Amino acid sequence: MSLTVKLALSPLLVAQGMLTRARLPRLPEAAGPRSGQVGRGPGLRLLVAGDSSAAGVGVALQQQALAAPLAARLAQRRRVRVHWSLLAQTGLDTAQTLELLQRQPQPPLADLAVVVTGVNDVTGQVPSRRALAAREALANWLRNAAGVQHVAFTPLPPVHRFPGLPQPLRWVAGADARRHNQALRDWAASRADVSCVDIELPLQPSAMADDGFHPGEPVYRACAEAIARHLAALDWRSDPSPSPETRP
Q1: Which structural domains are found in the chain, ordered by start?
Q2: I need a labelling partner for 23 at 20 to 30 A (CA). Which of 5, 44, 74, 164 fits?
């Protein structure tokens, strides 16, 4: 999309953005534990971090959201015991997700990390190159401070199909999301310790949350399966780490 078109539409886009925020219901984050373990076998530590979609907004319970089902599917696919944790908060962009992790009393040690961010970069008009720099800083911090061996980023969803957004706001935000995704994929392809998950989402209105903006349980289920399949196929290390309970 040309900058000229975007500037010409900017008064309408600002008005639509304000009206949409006022109109959409404010859904809570999913209730339930944000850490646990599942499966049997050698231990594998999984961290899920990010925004409202990582936090489970759109469903009632964490068991219906992303992190817990992802851990269960990954444990089954790799035949390991997955020790999982979730650090996420509604409204965070990529840079703020890094700040959330850095504010923890201790780094959240993990072998694999899944980062779910990007939509708030788009809605906050963060340029794609700045969002990409934040992703790189986040991946580097996870590797150096948290011991993460591989970071999998989820792509931005097809915002142009969000039923909760009016036109032309939906069209413009969708174009921005596609630009962010292309930058993410190009960057991830240049690093062995970073990847971008390929996800096909069921975004018909019945699969979305009541606000038409956040995932519903069918979307979370599809995401958990796609990410688990992606992580299980990674050759990030020859053997999983020993279970935390068995370490000296």
Answers
A1: 33-234 (3.40.50.1110)
A2: 5
